[in-house]
Design a protein that fits this description.
It is a single-pass type I membrane protein. The protein is an alpha/beta fold and 705 residues long. It has two domains: 166 residues, Glucose Oxidase, domain 1; 337 residues, Aminopeptidase (3-Layer(aba) Sandwich), CATH 3.40.630. Helix content is 34%, strand content 17%. The protein contains 20 helices and 23 strands. The strands form four sheets. An eight-stranded mixed β-sheet has the order 1-23-9-5-6-7-8-2, with helices on both faces. It has an eight-stranded mixed β-sheet with strand order 16-15-17-14-12-13-11-21, with helices on both faces. Helix 12 packs across helix 13. The two termini are 18 Å apart. Bound molecules: 2-acetamido-2-deoxy-beta-D-glucopyranose (NAG) (12 copies).
């Protein structure tokens, strides 16, 4: 009986609203038709020692009347003349620049922004990154080369407009140009465009974006809240997580990884590059020229070098390192240097002979590569001599190959590079190889447009996957030459003999397959064959090079795991160990987990079978934690180490619907509230008088028992 109470207001409300407004209005109030937008990516909030950057919506989603930006006049409409603020601005990517965005940011009439991202960037270039990447955490500062600090003599990324480092109080989502954006445009045209510039009539098309962020202010603040939650709550509601993942490394000659600190008689040449990138939007980081071209080149170099160097080992060891999280103030390299300093890594800095780093190389097109070095450490005569040797080794190899490799014509700072983190602690000799003499040639640095298309990795649309994997693109050919140069230079730098240099040649086929896998389709037959049989579904996900956060804390990002398997395939040996031996090789006399990693892989699958024949690969590859020392030391305001964290959130979604006028909605609400009050009164009356009202019914029920 009592259960009837709450039911009254609902049907009564619907009835009264329909009775008040009839027909159409009744429908639009009672059954708002939401159209979910399924292909959106938000911009999220990140925090460092002192700032928050990125975007967020209101807690219950930010809603605004949709307005499509097509001209300056539309901008005026949004910012001042339009009668229905706040507006949800829907724009083409050409408006997504710092001038327009800063005007929107400054206005209280903007509820949020949705940007349609095309596949190719604007011809004049576009970079939402800063002009001076990792400005405060490289080697240059007031104390070290003050004249070179803050990109004073070379602005590396002159196109950088800094949008990725702004703090927006409204949500910004990206959309692909597809059917969904057509639905949005149609909704706008049908409802929000009034003839001759007059105000459009309700109902209007509105958009709602949800991307509320839990963390605020900066990393010290959010880590403090995390600790409070952890200590006082059974279900801790964490607000932010440090950016973290793993570096991937491989030794030419395996070293015992269970002994840490200095190794007698080890002199190691480090061959480095980075693994990660970013863009304005969360988890979109194609970084084709920015990152992928570099690591593909180093992978191909390792593949070319290993067989020869294992046959005729050079006197020095070579450590291939792929640093993770470098985009965010050098997370991976700063951690490796920290571990080397604190005897938590298998070698220490005294073991490091020299560093050869690969920067951006994807656009060199067999023209010219540049050898960057640090003028400050070269003031030291022994470093100068070692850098000179390294330069001569590379030049020697280049002249053999008929390639042009030069040092920049004027003395300048090192470009942003992991090598700077080594120089921060001691003057290690080293070179950074890149395709730019001064400013980056990359016109889309850390942007969504730094993609396969920009690197010219493209195939005719009617090609099968097998044919695409087999097609050696021009980009692959030129990167293979760079890889040969790097591999031979490393062999020579490690003391290998000249006559064998010509035995080391990178395979353009491997380069083309790597580019295909990392830029176009990770779920291809080659990647499937060399990956774990139980993780194959991972390959279906879109590959992103954004470092991200880990849950649980020691989890490995799937794409990093895949990378380790690829490196193992390229540098390791197939063994005849069984699956259980592969898990526990220490039982076998000639195998050792101190020296090698053992990986069970799926193996190639021929056309007439489904399973392939899995086998065990032995390789000297390892994962090394890329977790900023700032968090190990609980120094969340660190000026020395990266402090970047990513906020948590509960809901990310986007949808459009029609809204009635505010007056109408207020009236509806008012009627609803009135009806609710009346019904509460009625309920109260009915329940207080229930004895009287329902006494007969009650009596009948008792008598039946
Ligand atoms: C921001 O808005 C204020 C007034 O609301 C104006 O004075 C100021 O110039 C604006 N700044 C920018 C960058 O548009
Ligand atoms: C920038 O470099 C120029 C010379 O290259 C120097 O004169 C100037 O003082 C430097 N500025 C700073 C802030 O160090
Ligand atoms: C926008 O970015 C350009 C570099 O692309 C810069 O020169 C300009 O000062 C920036 N404008 C604003 C308002 O930040
Ligand atoms: C944090 O990020 C902001 C925005 O990029 C930057 O201005 C500031 O210098 C950074 N703080 C530290 C300590 O690096
Ligand atoms: C997009 O539209 C095209 C034609 O307009 C249609 O063939 C296709 O199925 C649509 N795709 C989706 C996902 O609705
Ligand atoms: C998004 O997906 C939902 C459910 O699959 C569908 O109803 C909706 O129409 C989709 N949105 C668009 C804009 O296609
Ligand atoms: C818009 O204005 C033009 C002339 O200025 C007029 O001919 C036309 O009928 C108007 N359209 C509407 C829908 O009012
Ligand atoms: C690696 O070092 C540990 C500790 O010194 C030692 O027990 C182990 O036998 C070594 N492994 C190999 C393969 O030399
Ligand atoms: C190097 O190449 C030469 C000639 O191609 C060959 O005879 C020799 O065996 C190779 N050496 C190694 C270590 O691969
Ligand atoms: C790497 O993968 C290729 C193709 O599946 C295979 O032929 C080769 O044996 C693999 N190498 C190792 C060491 O697993
Ligand atoms: C694996 O190969 C080695 C030689 O490479 C051989 O001694 C060993 O018996 C083989 N083991 C099995 C299980 O086939
Ligand atoms: C699969 O095909 C290959 C040739 O393509 C053949 O040699 C092999 O016997 C076939 N295997 C099975 C199980 O049919």
């Amino acid at each position: 009986m009592r259960r009837m109470g709450p039911e009254i207001p609902k049907w009564f409300m619907i009835l009264s609203v329909c009775w008040l407004y009839k027909g159409v209005t009744c429908n639009s109030v009672e059954q708002k038709i939401y159209v979910a937008l399924n292909n959106t990516v938000p911009c999220v909030r990140l925090l460092n020692a002192t700032h928050q950057i990125g975007c967020q919506s209101l807690k219950s989603g930010s809603t605004g009347v949709l307005h499509v930006l097509q001209s300056e006049a539309d901008l005026d409409w949004v910012l001042s003349t339009g009668p229905h603020p706040p507006y949800m601005v829907f724009m083409e990517a050409s408006f997504f620049n710092n001038v327009t965005m800063m005007r929107l940011k400054n206005s209280t009439r903007v509820a949020g922004v949705a940007v349609v991202i095309p596949n190719t960037g604007p011809a004049q270039g576009y970079s939402p990154h800063t002009g001076c990447p990792n400005q405060n955490t490289g080697v240059y500062s007031e104390k070290y080369g003050p004249l070179l600090a803050n990109c004073n003599n070379t602005v590396w990324n002159p196109l950088g407009n800094g949008l990725s480092y702004e703090d927006f109080r409204f949500p910004i989502f990206s959309l692909k140009d597809d059917n969904e954006t057509e639905v949005i445009r149609k909704c706008f045209e049908d409802h929000n465009v009034a003839a001759n510039g007059s105000a459009p009539q309700y109902p209007l098309c509105a958009m709602q974006l949800f991307s509320h962020m839990s963390a605020v202010i900066d990393t010290p603040t959010c880590m403090r809240r995390n600790h409070l939650q952890n200590s006082f709550s059974i279900n801790p509601d964490m607000v932010c997580d440090p950016l973290r993942d793993y570096n991937v490394i491989a030794y030419l000659r395996p070293v015992n990884t269970s002994t840490k600190g200095h190794k007698a008689n080890e002199s190691v040449v480090i061959a480095a590059t980075r693994l990660d990138g970013r863009s304005f939007f969360w988890d979109i980081a194609p970084a084709a020229e920015g990152t992928v071209a570099g690591f593909v080149t180093l992978l191909a170099a390792a593949h070319a070098l290993f067989p020869v160097a294992q046959e005729v080992p050079p006197p020095r060891n070579i450590l291939f390192t792929f640093f993770q999280g470098e985009t965010f103030d050098y997370i991976g390299s700063s951690r490796m240097v920290y571990d080397m300093q604190n005897k938590k890594f298998e070698i220490d800095l005294d073991n490091v002979h020299s560093v050869l780093e690969l920067g951006q190389v994807g656009l060199w097109n067999r023209q010219k590569l540049w050898m960057h070095s640090d003028p400050i450490s070269r003031l030291n005569s022994s470093v100068e001599e070692e850098v000179g040797n390294l330069v001569n080794n590379i030049k020697f190899v280049a002249s053999q190959m008929n390639l042009s490799v030069e040092e920049p014509s004027v003395s300048q700072a090192l470009p942003p590079s992991s090598f700077q983190r080594f120089l921060r602690v001691r003057p290690v000799p080293g070179i950074v190889i890149a395709d730019h003499e001064a400013a980056f040639v990359n016109r889309y640095y850390e942007s969504i447009y730094d993609n396969a298309e920009y690197l010219n990795v493209a195939y005719p649309s009617n090609m099968s996957e097998a044919e695409q994997l087999d097609t050696v693109t021009d980009t692959a050919r030129s990167l293979a030459e760079a890889a040969t140069l790097v591999a031979r230079s490393l062999y020579k730098q490690a003391g290998g003999s000249d006559p064998l240099l010509s035995n080391i040649t990178a395979d353009p086929k491997i380069v083309t397959q790597l580019l295909y896998g990392f830029l176009i389709q990770p779920n291809n037959s080659w990647f499937r064959a060399l990956f774990r049989p139980d993780h194959q579904q991972v390959l279906k996900g879109v590959q992103s090079n954004y470092v991200g956060v880990r849950m649980p804390e020691n989890a490995v990002k799937e794409s990093t795991l895949l990378f380790q398997y690829i490196l193992a395939n390229l540098t390791g040996k197939a063994t005849n160990l069984t699956q259980s031996q592969c898990q526990n090789p220490s039982d076998l006399p000639e195998e050792s987990k101190d020296l090698y990693s053992y990986m069970w892989v799926k193996g190639p699958v021929s056309a007439n079978e489904t399973e392939g024949s899995p086998y065990c690969v032995r390789a000297s590859t390892r994962l090394h934690e890329a977790y900023s020392p700032a968090f190990l030391l609980s120094d969340y305001a660190s000026k020395e180490y990266s402090t970047w964290t990513e906020s948590r959130w509960k809901v990310i979604k986007a949808r459009i619907f029609l809204v009635a006028s505010q007056e109408l909605e207020m009236l509806t609400l008012g009627v609803g509230v009135a009806v609710l009050l009346v019904s509460l009164l009625v309920t109260y009356f009915m329940s207080s008088k229930a004895e009287i009202l329902f006494s007969s019914a009650r009596e009948t029920s008792t008598t039946t028992y």
